[in-house]
């Protein structure tokens, strides 16, 4: 057993078990005569278990043994550790709201196309939507810049879009509003699909 260390004191919500059992296919773990779990053993002999539960404060004695493919058991091993009160778990922070550099607020554009540019946290996905409907997405480059140029023409008049950044965990930023007016742009705003621009970097 490599984790936890013998007699280790550890917050009850951060307990992780790990070790090695070469030749075994699983490890059977028990506490006070009650079965806990049976994590599989990887081909290299390693195994691990990170329970979702929070262990009650105090001393814990976990007994375990390895089981091979023929169901033979190894000798018992003990893991003794002390669970401390749970550590504070901070909620993940969403990405920062994107910065929109074009179009500028309430800008009047000639159209018929509109190019959107800005900055956001590197690696985030930029989502542009209106009234809850996604119009398009793009991805920020290593320099934090992004751009999106839809392949349709915008009708004349005032337009308002929400621009959000989404990180790898799916957390959304606050919305940055893009408000602009298109003048002298014949045609209709009717995207047949959700366009996906490629990052420019």
Structure keywords:
disordered C terminus; 15 strands; elongated; 2 domains; Immunoglobulin-like; 42% strand; 201 residues; mainly beta
Topology:
Layout: E1 8-11, E2 17-20, E3 26-31, E4 34-37, E5 46-49, E6 58-67, E7 77-84, E8 99-102, E9 107-109, E10 116-119, E11 125-130, E12 133-139, E13 145-148, E14 157-166, E15 176-182
Parallel strand pairs: 1-7, 9-15
Antiparallel strand pairs: 2-5, 3-4, 3-6, 6-7, 8-10, 10-13, 11-12, 11-14, 14-15
Estimate percent helicity.
Answer: under 10%
Oligomer: single chain
Which whole number gives the mean pLDDT? 86
Distance N to C terminus? 47 Å
- The strands making up the biggest β-sheet line up spatially as 1-7-6-3-4
What is the annotated CATH architecture of the largest domain? Sandwich
State the CATH topology of the largest domain.
Immunoglobulin-like
Give the C-alpha Rg: 28 Å
Count of helical regions? 0
The count of DSSP E runs of length 2 or more, i.e. the number of strands, is 15
Elements, N to C (H/E): EEEEEEEEEEEEEEE
- Low-pLDDT stretches: 188-201
Please state roughly what percent of the residues sit in beta strands, choosing from under 5%, 5-15%, 15-25%, 25-35%, 35-45% or over 45%: 35-45%
The shape is elongated
Overall tally of domains: 2
Largest sheet: 5 strands, mixed
- In terms of structural class, how would the helical and strand content be classed? mainly beta
CATH class type of the largest domain? Mainly Beta
CATH H-level homologous superfamily name of the largest domain: Immunoglobulins
């Amino acid at each position: 057993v490599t984790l936890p260390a013998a007699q280790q004191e550890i917050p009850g919500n951060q307990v992780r078990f790990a070790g090695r059992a070469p030749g075994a296919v699983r490890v059977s773990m028990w506490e006070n005569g009650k079965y806990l779990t049976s994590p599989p053993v990887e081909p290299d002999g390693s195994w691990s278990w990170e329970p979702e539960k929070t262990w009650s404060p105090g001393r814990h004695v976990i007994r375990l043994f390895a089981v091979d493919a023929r169901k033979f058991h190894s000798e018992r091993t003990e893991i003794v550790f002390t669970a401390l009160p749970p550590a504070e778990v901070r909620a993940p922070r969403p990405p920062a709201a994107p910065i929109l550099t074009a179009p500028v607020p309430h800008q009047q554009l000639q159209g018929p196309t509109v190019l959107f540019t800005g900055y956001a946290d590197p690696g985030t996905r930029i989502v542009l939507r209106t009234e809850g409907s996604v119009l398009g997405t793009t991805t920020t480059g290593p320099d934090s810049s992004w751009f999106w140029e839809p392949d349709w023409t915008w009708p004349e008049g005032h337009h308002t879009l929400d621009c959000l950044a989404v990180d790898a965990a799916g957390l959304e930023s606050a919305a940055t509003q893009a408000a602009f007016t298109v003048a002298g742009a014949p045609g209709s705003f009717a995207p047949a699909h959700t366009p996906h621009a490629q990052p420019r970097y």
